[in-house]
Amino acid sequence: MPSIIVDADGQGSRLDRFLRRKDYYFPQSLFEKWSRQKKLLVNGQKAKASTRLNEGDELTFPDNAIPIPPPLEVTKIVYTEEEAREILRKMTIFEDDFIIAINKPTGLASQGGTGQRTSVDAICRAAYPSKKYRLTHRIDLETSGILLIAKSLKSASNMTQAFRERTVQKTYIAVCDGIFDIKQDTINLPIGHCDEDFESMATQGYDIKEAVTHYKVLRDMGEMSLVELSPKTGRTHQLRVHMSTLGHPILGDKKYGGSQAPRLMLHAWKIHFENYEIEADIPKEFPEMA
Question: Which of 7, 8, 148, 284 is the 20 to 30 Å CA partner of 43?
Fold first, then answer.
């Protein structure tokens, strides 16, 4: 198990708050479990999340902590062309004459809306005001990963048709609550708008449509699982609803019952269509594959 020597910054701090300042996150339930199991130690002695630390203490903890991501730097509402192009360049992981593929950070909206300071769509318009770049699909505000931008109307039309015909293969990585009894399966549960809350989706409600997700557990981690998710349809919040309905909500998913986390632990990892195979680096806050 890893150890940290408490520095002056940790003098008098609670154990849990100190670890988070040092870029580690534990769900509170795991603090309690590890304390009971004597896996959370200060100077070799059993500790709790609330234990107060002193400078020079040796803090030992289990090795499947989730690092906290850096804050999103994109916070301005209006950009010059030069600023917007630099932001877009830093996010770009692939580009040719037809498309741009970016690795969208968590916290950046795909498209502008109420309360959004900025969006990928707005950045594209600012970067290339004379061109008609278009988003070909969306991923949630809190989801990171691959987002495709068409560089022409024809490219946008072709991509939209590919998504409609389900010839685009998408693969996500998620950290989910709990340990799965069935390690690989297909979820076929329709999704629509929740009767009580229009902004939430559910397997019962109105405007119900087919929704299919294949999942495969890549790694068991105590009370969490690293899971590969492959949606075969593209419903709003599909992966989040399916995992929650299965009893394994995605960590950080406040809307659908996930345990507390510094972000929604869902990342659009790979995309394959026609002759394209694009992969986005997995954020550092996600656990290793094995």
Answer: 284
* 88 against 207, higher pLDDT: 88
Residue 163 region by backbone torsions, left for phi larger than 0, else alpha for psi between -120 and 50, else beta = alpha
Pick the closest to residue 1 from 65, 66, 63 (CA basis). Answer: 63
Tell me which residue of 250, 267, 268 sits closest to 258, measured CA to CA.
250
Helix-helix angle 120-127:81-91, to 10 degrees: 130
The whole model's pTM is what? 0.74
- Mean pLDDT (the chain, rounded): 87
Query: What percentage of the chain exceeds 90 in pLDDT?
Result: 52
Residue 219 has pLDDT above 90, yes or no: yes
- Strand 144-150 vs strand 266-273: parallel, antiparallel, or unpaired? parallel
Go through 244-272 and write b for each residue having 16 or more CB atoms within 10 A of its CB, e for each that does not. bbbebbbbbbebbebbebbbbbbbbbbbe
Q: What residues act catalytically?
A: 140
Helix (H/G/I), strand (E/B), else coil: 206? strand
Q: How many C-alpha atoms does 119 have within 13 Å on its Cβ side?
A: 18
CA 258 to chain centre: 12
